[in-house]
Amino acid sequence: MKHYVITLFTRDGEFEYLDRQLFSFDGDPTDESAVLSDYFMEPVTHDEMCLAYQIDGDYRLYRVFSMKEVDPNHLDIVRKYL
């Protein structure tokens, strides 16, 4: 399993947020739908009009803003500061 520092973009009505944390993921990091589904542990659906993803029953919109793989040798340092 690879570790990434992931930054998520959330649009909550008129407010927008960026959240960053350490994330373990086995799949293809370029597949935004798979990344978000694994992150939220729920399936996500793509909203064509907003160009973002939603979870059933949630009005917020999500995108992967950035995702950078963490070198295994640096994992302890990243855990300390995130």
Tell me what you see in this structure.
- The chain is an alpha+beta fold.
- It has helices at 32-40, 75-81; strands at residues 2-12, 15-25, 44-47, 52-55, 61-69.
- The strands form 2 sheets. A 3-stranded antiparallel beta sheet has the order 2-1-5, sandwiched between helices.
- The protein is globular and about 40 Å long.
- The relative contact order is 0.29.
- Kindly state the percentage of residues in helix: 10-25%
The Cα radius of gyration reads 13 Å
> Helical stretch count?
2
Overall tally of structural domains: 1
List low-confidence stretches.
none
Short structural description:
The protein is an alpha+beta fold and 82 residues long. It is built from 2 helices and 5 strands; from the N terminus they run ββαβββα.
Name the descriptors.
3-stranded antiparallel β-sheet; globular; alpha+beta; 82 residues; two-stranded antiparallel ribbon
Helix and strand topology:
Layout: E1 2-12, E2 15-25, H1 32-40, E3 44-47, E4 52-55, E5 61-69, H2 75-81
Antiparallel strand pairs: 1-2, 1-5, 3-4
